[in-house]
Specification:
CATH architecture of one domain: Beta Barrel
Strand content: 35-45%
Number of helices: 2
Strand order of the largest sheet: 1-2-3-4-5-6-7-8
CATH class of one domain: Mainly Beta
Radius of gyration: 29 Å
Largest sheet: 8 strands, antiparallel, barrel
Distance between the termini: 14 Å
Shape: globular
Mean pLDDT: 81
CATH topology of one domain: Lipocalin
Structural class: mainly beta
Helix content: under 10%
Number of strands: 16
């Protein structure tokens, strides 16, 4: 494994192990209590009048306290969520995000959101107009518009983004979006097939070729101790896909990365000869096939040149 790979893998495992797995918890609104005034005791007429006593002053009612925040305290529960963006063809680009609930200096409720891609943590912003929530992402006009359910544990709506087509025209895409709290998985469990697939452990290094993209590519995958969750990346000479996270089960590998403005999905299956064949998608505007073969010695040309130079 190259020096780049060892550093990359060490960072991934260290940070992924710190991913919060706490269940979503509800935040209860404060209630407004108005103190009713005490009523003065009625005077009782008697035959003999007592000595004059100082006149009692009746307690004045308190002014009701402004508590408008009670109307917006309700919103998505704090904790880890799993979101799904439905791509053309029914494939789901799954990702994780964490919602935090706090109060500001004026005791007003605030929600904070961060996206999680393995070790990568990316900030986002949420505007709670209960029941409608709008999640936006720095540096892009992409957004999620979703309604929270009555238990504050689910969201449903659309992921909206624009992308220029080949003619340079901006095209707006609206893709179905759902999310569920207290779900730490990256992808939904696969249903058990009729025949159990025997695949063994996922190889760590692969030589990758794409149907449309030219030039060599390599993939580096690390299977976490649970035997299912996988982190890694795919690199070419020009770029890499960043930190991917996903799962490998029943011979199927699914990896994704979602930054708010971009989203990629690898979905492939191990063939009997050990080859990994599948589809690469970049949100809704691009899709192509890929083929990968396990190769512990796979290197990009730049890495080969560095090795020959003794670096």
């Amino acid at each position: 494994m190259s020096r780049y790979s060892k550093l990359f893998v060490a960072g991934l495992i260290a940070a992924v192990s710190c991913l919060p797995l706490t269940a979503c918890t509800a935040q209860a609104p404060e209630t407004t209590v108005t103190v009713q005034p005490e009523q003065p005791m009625p005077e009782v007429q008697t035959a003999a009048q007592p000595e004059a006593q100082p006149e009692e002053v009746a307690q004045q009612p308190e002014e009701p306290k402004a508590n408008s925040k009670n109307t917006i305290d309700w919103g998505p529960r704090r904790g880890i969520w799993r979101g799904e963006i439905e791509l053309p063809g029914g494939q789901a680009l799954s990702f994780n995000f964490v919602i935090e609930f706090t109060r500001d200096e004026e005791d007003q409720p605030t929600w904070d959101v961060s996206l999680r891609n393995g070790a990568e943590v990316l900030p986002a912003m949420i505007q709670n107009n209960n029941p409608l929530n709008i999640i936006t992402f720095p540096g892009t006009d992409a957004r999620i518009e979703a309604t929270v359910n009555s238990s504050n544990t689910g969201l449903g709506g659309e992921y909206i983004y624009t992308h220029e087509n080949d003619e340079g025209e901006a095209v707006e895409y609206r893709l179905p979006f759902i999310a569920q709290c207290s779900d730490t998985r990256r992808f939904a469990w696969l249903e058990a097939g009729e025949d159990e697939v025997a695949t063994g452990r996922l190889a760590e290094r692969w030589a990758v070729s794409f149907d449309e993209r030219t030039g060599p590519a390599i993939a580096e995958f690390i299977t976490l101790p649970d035997g299912i969750n996988v982190v890694g990346t795919v690199r070419t000479l020009a770029e890499d896909d960043g930190q991917l996270a996903g799962s490998f089960e029943q011979g199927r590998l699914r990896l994704s990365r979602f930054t708010g403005g971009t989203g990629i999905l690898y979905d492939g299956t191990i063939e009997p000869d050990g080859t990994l064949i599948g589809t690469f998608r970049s949100l809704a505007h691009h899709a192509e096939g890929f083929t990968a073969s396990p190769d512990g010695e796979a290197q990009l040309e730049r890495e080969t040149d560095s090795k020959l130079a003794g670096e």
